[in-house]
Design brief:
By secondary structure, this protein is an alpha+beta fold. The chain contains nine helices and 13 strands. The protein folds into two domains: 136 residues, 2-Layer Sandwich (60s Ribosomal Protein L30, Chain: A); 173 residues, PurM-like C-terminal domain (Phosphoribosyl-aminoimidazole Synthetase, Chain A, domain 2).
Length: 327
C-alpha cells in the first residue's frame, strides 16, 4: 500500500468534536475554540525502546502510545479532543499490522471521543510513532507541577507497579506464575492497555489549586518533577504506596523497584491542600477511581527540590532511578 492509499485507509469517515472545521485532506487541520485554553503535548515512541513485538501485538502498540498521551492530558486537567500521528514505517511491518496499530488507536480514541486530524507517513529503517495530542481546559484551569505548597497532601490514583509486573511476566515466560491466577492477565493488560485518569482529573476542576503529574517514568521521577518545579520537598511513606494484592507474589526487591521506579502505570500523582482533600476523595468516588494519601509537602530550604522516602521509621532521599533517555 503506498502512502496515499494508506492515509486514505486510516482517515475517519465521521468526526466527533464539534470544534473541528477541517480534518484530514488539506495541508493542515483547522479547529475553532474561543472560550477555552488549548493544551498540546507530543511524544515519540521507537520500536525496541518503547515497545516490542515480543511483548505487544500491533493493536496494543497503537492503544498504548495514544494512552500515554491521553495520560498527559489528564495530568494537565485537560479534556483530550484531537490527535495527529507521524509514523516512520520500515519494510518489515505489513499493511495488516499497520492497520492494527491504528485500530488500537481508534479503540481508545473512541472511549475519549477523540478525532484523528492529521499527521505524516514516511518510510525508514525502524518503526517510529510520534503522537501530537490537543485538548482543552476551562480558561485558567490547567494544572501545573508548580502548584504544590507547604503542608499539602501527596496522593496517587490506582495501584503502582502493575505495568512493570506485566512487562516482567511477558519477558520471563519460563518463570512459573500459575499461582497468580486471573491476576496474570490483569498485570499484562495493565502494561499493554493502561487507563488514563481523565475523568478523575476533570472532576478536580472545582478545586482552587492542585498539582498533577502522570506516572510514566516511575513515582520517583514524577514526584521529583513536582518537587523541583514547586521548589518544595515531598515526603512519601513507602508503606502507604498502594499496590495490587497479588504484587506480593513477587520478591520484596521487585515490588519496591516496580512501585517506585517501574513507571508506565499512567496513574496520577498530585498534591492538594488539606482543606480540599475531601473534594479529591469525593472526585475519586464519583469517577470510581482509587485514590490514596501517601505523604505530605513541606518547605525545607535545605531539601527543596527533593523527595524523601520514609520506610521502617527511617527517611532517606529518593533518587531518580526511573527510565531516562540519553542517560
Amino acid at each position: 500500500m503506498d502512502e496515499f492509499n494508506f492515509i486514505k485507509s486510516i482517515q475517519q469517515k465521521n468526526y466527533i468534536q464539534p470544534s473541528l472545521i477541517k480534518g484530514i485532506g488539506d495541508d493542515a487541520a483547522v479547529f475553532r475554540q474561543s472560550y477555552q485554553d488549548t493544551v498540546m503535548a507530543v511524544d515519540t515512541f521507537v520500536e525496541n525502546i518503547h515497545f516490542s513485538r515480543k511483548t505487544m501485538l500491533p493493536f496494543h502498540v497503537g492503544y498504548r502510545v495514544l494512552a500515554a498521551n491521553i495520560s498527559d492530558m489528564a495530568a494537565m486537567g485537560s479534556t483530550p479532543a484531537y490527535y495527529l500521528i507521524s509514523i516512520v514505517i520500515p519494510k518489515d511491518w505489513s499493511d495488516s499490522e499497520l492497520n492494527d496499530i491504528y485500530r488500537g488507536m481508534r479503540e481508545i480514541a473512541k472511549q475519549y471521543r477523540m478525532d484523528l486530524i492529521g499527521g505524516d507517513t514516511v518510510s525508514g529503517n525502524e518503526l517510529v510513532i510520534s503522537v501530537t495530542i490537543v485538548g482543552f481546559t476551562s480558561q485558567g484551569q490547567s494544572r501545573y507541577r508548580t502548584n504544590a505548597k507547604n503542608n499539602d497532601i501527596v496522593f496517587v490514583t490506582g495501584t503502582l507497579g502493575d505495568a512493570a509486573a506485566g512487562f516482567h511476566l511477558l519477558t520471563n515466560e519460563s518463570e512459573s506464575m500459575e499461582h497468580l491466577g486471573n491476576s496474570f492477565n490483569y498485570f499484562i493488560d495493565r502494561h499493554r492497555m493502561p487507563s488514563p485518569r481523565v475523568s478523575f482529573a476533570q472532576a478536580l476542576s472545582p478545586l482552587s489549586r492542585v498539582s498533577l503529574n502522570d506516572i510514566s517514568d516511575g513515582i520517583g521521577n514524577e514526584a521529583a518533577e513536582i518537587a523541583v518545579a514547586s521548589k518544595v520537598t515531598l515526603h512519601i511513606n513507602y508503606e502507604k504506596i498502594p499496590c495490587h494484592p497479588d504484587l506480593n507474589c513477587f520478591s520484596e526487591e521487585q515490588q519496591k523497584r516496580w512501585k517506585l521506579f517501574g513507571g508506565e502505570d499512567f496513574e496520577l500523582i498530585g498534591t492538594v491542600s488539606k482543606q480540599e482533600w475531601p473534594a479529591v476523595v469525593d472526585a475519586a468516588h464519583k469517577t470510581n477511581t482509587m485514590v490514596t494519601e501517601i505523604g505530605y509537602v513541606d518547605d525545607n530550604e535545605r531539601l527543596n527540590g527533593s523527595v524523601m522516602l520514609r520506610e521502617n521509621n527511617n527517611e532517606m532521599k529518593l533518587e531518580k532511578l526511573g527510565y531516562t533517555h540519553l542517560k
